[in-house]
Amino acid sequence: MRQVIKIFLLALLLNGVIAAAASTATNGLVWRTTVDRVTADIHGEALWPLLEDIAHQTGWHIFVEPEANRKTDVKFSDLPASEALKKLLGDLNFAYVPKTNEADQLYVFMTSINHATQRVPGATAAKPVLRKHLPNELLLKVKPGTDIEALAKSLGAKIIGRDDKSGIYRLQFADVAATDAALGQLKTNPDVEAVEYNYLLDPPVAAQKIDGAPGSAPVALTLDAATANDPCHPVVGLIDTPMQSLGSQLDPFILKPISVTGDTAVPATATGPTHATSMAETILRAVSQQSSSSAVRILPVDVYGNSETATTWNVALGVKAAVDGGATVLNMSLGGSTDSSILNGIIQQAQAKGVLIFAAAGNQPVDTQTFPAALPGVIAVAATQGSQLAPYSNFGSFISMALPGASVVYLGNQAYVVQGTSPATAYASGIAAGYKGINCAPWSQIQTMMQQKFPVPKN
């Protein structure tokens, strides 16, 4: 395996991977603001650094009584914010004050809220998180037996998407005011397990044409059709854009595409490879670095259609469609700044079936979490250049591994380069799938091996 990885990395370097540096950060506190959940593993941390961390992750304006002080020593997982604050602040008093047109406020004090006068740094230095969503839509998950038709009618909503088996629905409202009013009502409805906006994910990074590059360099890989249905040879569910043909040599590795958008056509204006085309070729190139033949297949699942962005609803449906279509490992070279309990629930269902999931950490670069990469159990992949973290790559404790963040791909006889944590994720998926095909090792063993071979660079 060591020789395989050396050959793989050498091939990437020959394909033009550029070196640069960036820093990483660790953090024992994960504050998932959109679902009001907190996980912490903190030992002996003083009050002020703790409050700075909370301010940075939440964007709250925090005020503390100057004489207040304590050390926090706690460990818990997935608690509501109110319960988490009690554990984090111990015997100190606090008051949380939500605001409409400004940052929410948290007051921490020993005696009286009026004594909490000293502003904690952190929130003003934090980069703002843009939570973009469709203005007149909500997603919700209801309890079994709920009359969704009656519920939607009572809210004046139209059901425009549904998965009755999972109990998740997409509702459309007349305007923003009706949407926000319904959100408030549904949050207190005992029949509703989760409700949220339909968030938009970031547009994928486009491949860049390489002028003067030599003609097509096809991936040297042949399909091992005799064992194509063997469970030891995985199917990679590619949750992405529409994709083009990879040519006669690689198209046999591609299963019939699925679309959850109703439109799988590549835009007529496309002048280069789509994001999915680039990721598929990158996955197969990673497989080819380990063996000249393989029964690994790729199942393309289009969650973008002709739109520049995907929604959490489409991604959730895409994950479910990929798993139902036989995918045993998912490549999610996409992401956004907002957590989604609806998507998280679908991903947990996939994981319960033994599906391995890789997702891109993001290209900001910040230590702010990217989703779905930061969801529990998902393997978040950062990008490297040379032996260091790429300067554009996100960093932080939610990241599991880091791989080269540049891939040279071909459409016809024209070369393109795609750069970011997206190709890094595709390399990871290809290595995992290829190794599984050779050794039939458990996914847990493969994940451990890859985390050892592709660690996140430290300062």
Kindly describe this structure.
The protein is an alpha/beta fold and 459 residues long. It folds into 3 domains: 91 residues, 3-Layer(bab) Sandwich (Phage tail protein beta-alpha-beta fold); 67 residues, Alpha-Beta Plaits; 252 residues, Rossmann fold. Helix content is 27%, strand content 27%. The strands form 6 sheets. Strands 14, 15, 17, 18, 19, 20, 21 and 22 form an 8-stranded mixed sheet that branches. The protein starts with a helix and ends in a 6-residue tail after the last helix. 46% of the residues are buried. The N terminus is likely disordered.
Key features?
single chain; 459 residues; Phage tail protein beta-alpha-beta fold; Alpha-Beta Plaits; eight-stranded mixed beta sheet; globular
So how many helices?
10
Largest beta sheet, briefly? 8 strands, mixed
CATH architecture field of the largest domain: 3-Layer(aba) Sandwich
Q: For the record, what is the CATH homologous superfamily label of the largest domain?
A: Peptidase S8/S53 domain
Q: Which shape, going by the Cα principal axes?
A: globular
Structural class: alpha/beta
Strand content: 25-35%
User: What count of structural domains?
Assistant: 3
Text of the CATH class of the largest domain: Alpha Beta
- DSSP strand count: 24
Look at the structure and give the mean pLDDT: 86
Rg over alpha carbons: 23 Å
CATH topology of the largest domain: Rossmann fold
Q: What distance separates the N and C termini?
A: 27 Å
Poorly predicted ranges (pLDDT <50, ≥5 residues)?
2-27, 123-130
What is the helical fraction, as a range of percent?
25-40%
